[in-house]
Amino acid sequence: MDATHRWIRRLAAGATMIALPLAVMAHGPTGNLPENCPPIPHAGRPMALPPFGMLPGTPPRDMMPPFMRGLKLTDEQHDKIFALMHEQIPSVREKLKAASKAMEELRRMAGEDGFNADKARTLAQTSAHAMAQVILMHAELDAKLRMLLTPEQRKQSDDARSETEPCRSFRR
Fold this sequence. Notes:
single chain; mainly alpha; Four Helix Bundle (Hemerythrin (Met), subunit A)
């Protein structure tokens, strides 16, 4: 009986020695402070109700552009934001599909014996052009969304942007 208790104690001590360093390292070198942690992705059921305080049909908080987070928006502003974002989705999706298709073809071609440098260059340019268009579309959307804000909201957005830079602790 005494040997069994010793064995259980050793097993518990070993498990603790393994688990403790892993738990300490879970948040990296910056610690467990909220400002140092990366954002938690939205994890909900497909038909889950929106979080408390968010109306159905409004973009989730994590989908809002960073410069608009934390602002008190009117229902009219929410409707316009939703319409602008919804309007852009199909064209962004088409550009991303084109970029993905070009990259997939480029990867496939790189693994073959007969590598055609001209075709590879064309595929790389196609992918880069599509991604550049997506980035430009995002910049245009941000400009349109910023124009929806009142001067007070723009000032709040600018102040928040200058105070809080993106999480820099996880840089490569």
